[in-house]
Amino acid sequence: MTDNASIYAKSGVDTAAGDLAVELMKSAVSRTHGPEVVGGFGGFAGLFDASALLGYKRPLLASSTDGVGTKVAIAQAIDKHDTIGQDLVAMVVDDIVVVGAKPLFMTDYIACGKVVPERIADIVRGIADACTATGTALVGGETAEHPGLLGPDDYDVAGAATGVVEADRMLSASLVQDGDVVLAMGASGLHSNGFSLVRHILSERGIGYERHSADLGASYGEALLTPTALYTSPLLRVLEDPALEGAIHSLSHVTGGGIAANLARVLPLGSWVELDRGTWSPLPVFRHLADLGGHTLESLEGAWNLGIGMFAVVAADRASHVAAALTAEGLDTWVAGTISMAPRDFTGFEQGAKGTNGGAVRLVGAFPA
């Protein structure tokens, strides 16, 4: 260690540990690089050859940025860091596919109290593996050591990605029509939202993450770290199927805000839909946590996805074909409701969200016992 590095280390920043972390993650990151990535690994800026966009008539760039929220607290508590990376990619890239865009590249940012090379490498390997699965190049990132601001075992992760869609293939609420069918796609678990409530419930009951749950078939920590499902590649294959061109009108990624609010964002003003709770059974993790917290499942629809990770709003005459294609891609898919444009009273409906003036959505009926 040089004298300058030694002086910096006295303040709590270990540049040698940072260099080791980079070496440990290097091969995983490089595997996400196709010929479009220029300059390889380790530059000040990631370079991506955009000449492929010359083949588009009117390419629209789509961007998204996000983190994974307080789910990282559970990873830190049980010292398991190899799934958080997939959560991050899913939260960012699956927002891009909602407009029909193909992801091109992504960058990540990890802030930590102390660089533990193996821990950082686990996180980045998870990011890289998920980038590979979604066809996204991981072109850069940053690991920032913040001693005194974060504890030695504390960290947070964030990421941003860019994708592209041909303008006349973009999905949006403007394409949604009266009679369109709403298809729901199953979630892998809690995904990466609502963990502050999860942690509150477990804390109130004095339950540690290491405790085994018979209902969940694992420790609470392991069950809660089930990684967020990746929808991008299956959805892109269906969107790019010539036989299904134009069949999907809009998509919604069910993240923060819950089920109804997220679907309302991708419906046109004046439209409405009632989602039938009887069409799916919430996953055991939701039922178990609801029971622990003394909550009904219905009261949690604005906090958790309850087993729905994505919605597709599709043309009625092609809904069965889209559902079959999504199922063939490994996505559990079912009909959850039908869009209507008929005038009605919207009392009890969620209308728009996140600043959008969208459609109206509410859940009706009862969940299967």
TrEMBL record:
Gene3D superfamilies: PurM-like C-terminal domain, PurM-like, N-terminal domain. GO terms for cellular component: cytosol. Signal peptide: none annotated. It holds the Pfam family AIRS_C. It is found in: Cytoplasm. The keyword Signal does not apply. GO terms for molecular function: ATP binding; phosphoribosylamine-glycine ligase activity; phosphoribosylformylglycinamidine cyclo-ligase activity. Its EC number is 6.3.3.1. Coiled coil: none annotated. One of its GO terms (biological process) is adenine biosynthetic process. Keywords: ATP-binding, Cytoplasm, Ligase, Nucleotide-binding, Purine biosynthesis. Its main location: cytoplasm. Pathway: Purine metabolism; IMP biosynthesis via de novo pathway; 5-amino-1-(5-phospho-D-ribosyl)imidazole from N(2)-formyl-N(1)-(5-phospho-D-ribosyl)glycinamide: step 2/2. Residues 60-165 form the PurM-like N-terminal domain. The keyword GTP-binding does not apply. It is an enzyme of class 6 (ligase). It catalyses: 2-formamido-N(1)-(5-O-phospho-beta-D-ribosyl)acetamidine + ATP = 5-amino-1-(5-phospho-beta-D-ribosyl)imidazole + ADP + phosphate + H(+). Residues 177-340 form the PurM-like C-terminal domain. Belongs to the AIR synthase family. PANTHER family: TRIFUNCTIONAL PURINE BIOSYNTHETIC PROTEIN ADENOSINE-3 (PTHR10520:SF12), TRIFUNCTIONAL PURINE BIOSYNTHETIC PROTEIN ADENOSINE-3-RELATED (PTHR10520). HAMAP family: AIRS (MF_00741). This is Phosphoribosylformylglycinamidine cyclo-ligase. It comes from Leucobacter insecticola.
